[in-house]
Design brief:
Shape: elongated
Strand content: under 5%
Helix content: 55-70%
Largest sheet: none
Oligomer: single chain
Number of strands: 0
Structural class: mainly alpha
Order of helices and strands: HHHHHH
Distance between the termini: 61 Å
């Protein structure tokens, strides 16, 4: 069932308005609310952050999928799986020390 963005925004606005922010009161509820918003956004963008920090060769595709299709959860896991794969630059064969330069075939 699709979620109406206006309803989600209305929920967050009502939750923010329910905090008692009169002078001299505890403001910890607002801090916890914004901490949860930042944590949720970080978790949602985790595959994008992973590919960007690792300089993955499929970074543009993962960021696109994560931003526009990550809300479907299935594509978030696809992006996370791709982000966990080894970047192409690390997959290249490195020469082994003292290995012969010829083959016995």
């Amino acid at each position: 069932m699709p979620v109406d963005g206006g309803l989600v925004m209305a929920y967050f606005m009502s939750a923010a308005n329910n905090f008692n922010l009169t002078p001299g009161t505890f403001v910890g509820g607002a801090a916890i609310f914004w901490l949860l918003v930042v944590l949720a956004a970080s978790l949602y963008l985790l595959p994008s952050l992973m590919v960007l920090f690792r300089r993955h060769h499929l970074a543009a595709a993962v960021v696109f999928v994560n931003l526009f299709l990550g809300w479907t959860v299935v594509w978030w896991f696809v992006g996370f799986f791709v982000a966990c794969t080894t970047p192409e630059r690390l997959r290249r064969a490195t020469p082994v020390a003292n290995a012969p330069a010829y083959s016995y075939r």
